[in-house]
Amino acid sequence: MPERIADAPWLFWLLEAVHRCQVGLLQLWHALGLSGEVDGQPAWPWAQRMAGERLLQDLGQARQLVWSLAAVAAVLVLVGVAVLWRRGRPWLLAGALLALVLAPWPERQVVLASAVPTSFHRNPLPFTDAAIVQGAALYQRQCLRCHGEAGNGQGPDAADQPVWPPSFSGPLLWRRAEGELLQAVRHGMQDAQGRTTMPGFAAQLSVPESWALLHFLRAQAAGQLLRATGSWAQPIALPDMPLRCHRPDKLQVRDWQGQRLRVVSSARVQDVAPDPRMVTLWLPQPGQDAAHLPDHVDCAVTSGATALQALGWINAGESVREVQLLADKAGWLRARNGRGTESWSDDDLLCRTTDAPAAARGQTEEDGLTRILRRMDAEPLGYVQGGRVHGGR
Ligand code: HEC
């Protein structure tokens, strides 16, 4: 299965095209007044949708789909010409018929998945430290009893459920469409017999609260993946956080998009060596004052305990004290140095697209940090969620 975009680039073009067509159709339907809104966004009016995520797992069917689409395009051209060119008409129409018959139509159950009105919804909340912390509090109140402290499905009530709650410390939250996760949280889940397997929370949670919960689930899952595998096996963004910077036009993390970022949470911020290759964000510890912004760091994070807590979830549930985090130009967290030193090793690159060890990539004289920065730039991240392609190519 091509987990990586580089493995089958044509497939990602296909997924993107399929996704865009569906979103276009949804917007058209909504604009024509044929479908309403649900949970604040246009509702998908059909019971099925194209299942891009399954095509990803079945390259053979994906190829068949491409050939079938090519056949449809050929039919349109042939019919178009037939309308204009009288004498060639019988041959052109016969050719069109032949293309339709010979097209290797893919299997319905592979190409189509059942859909809900929120299937194409996108999380409208920015991924911020505040949203993660808000989600964490809601999780403890509503979800922990089944899904467990670590989100691994080991809550105190888990054994009493008709099916065991799933573990979030796997690819689940990255594969399922965001809007379908929202549906599960708000309206619950049923098994094939229609029995409720997970209760819905639409009565207890507002729509924005439900979205904040999904942000938290992802931060928690990234941290648990880090704990279990030693890597951020699924991509996780550096949360947006409020900043105070020397440059007055920079007010939050996302204002630095396009730059490499380093988050430093050190008791001795004066010892952090400035590095012109990255923007340095200082994350003050309790008792440190963000108002005293040293000259050699670019910004201080001003949300205090909220930022520490949110990053703690992503950092395997552990404190980020004396930890340095690196985010790439697209905003994904890529590397962590938890040793409280200034020297980096290849193993600190925790989110990577290739597994080749540094030795196999040619010995270089470069230091560890330079190598990490080079790989961050050279290996952009991407993944497919609910058939939608996110990120790099
Ligand atoms: C009473 C127990 C219980 C509670 C409380 C509960 N869940 Fe679940 N949850 C389940 C079970 C069981 C499943 C698996 C259902 C299935 O696969 O049919 C599940 C599945 C899920 C899934 C996976 C959806 C998917 O597409 O596979 C998500 C996401 C989820 N729960 C989120 C939450 C959130 C967020 C909360 C708190 C608002 C919550 N759950 C509260 C029992 C619970």
Give the key terms:
3 domains; six-stranded mixed beta sheet; Glutaredoxin; two-stranded antiparallel sheet; alpha+beta; 12 helices; binds heme C; Cytochrome Bc1 Complex, Chain D, domain 2; 14 strands; 393 residues
Describe the SSE topology:
Elements: H1 9-31, E1 37-38, E2 41-42, E3 48-50, H2 52-55, H3 59-84, H4 89-102, H5 108-111, E4 112-114, H6 129-142, H7 144-147, H8 172-175, H9 178-187, E5 189-190, E6 196-198, H10 207-229, E7 243-245, E8 261-265, E9 279-282, E10 299-301, H11 305-314, E11 323-327, E12 333-337, H12 368-378, E13 382-385, E14 388-391
Parallel strand pairs: 8-9, 9-10
Antiparallel strand pairs: 1-2, 3-4, 5-6, 7-10, 8-11, 11-12, 13-14
The structure holds heme C (HEC).
Instruction: Examine the secondary-structure arrangement and name the CATH architecture of the largest domain.
Output: 3-Layer(aba) Sandwich
Number of domains: 3
Major sheet summary line: 6 strands, mixed
**Secondary structure: helix percent:** 25-40%
Give the termini separation.
Answer: 17 Å
The backbone outline, from C-alpha atoms, is globular
User: Strand tally, please?
Assistant: 14
Question: Can you list the strand order of the major beta sheet?
Answer: 7-10-9-8-11-12
- Could you say what the CATH topology of the largest domain is called? Glutaredoxin
Q: Tell me, what is the CATH class of the largest domain?
A: Alpha Beta
Class derived from helix and strand content? alpha+beta
Q: Based on the structure, what is the oligomeric state of the protein chains?
A: single chain
Q: Which ligands appear in the coordinates?
A: heme C
Query: What would the average pLDDT be, to the nearest integer?
Result: 90
Order of helices and strands: HEEEHHHHEHHHHEEHEEEEHEEHEE
CA gyration radius, whole angstroms: 25 Å
Strand content: 5-15%
Number of helices: 12
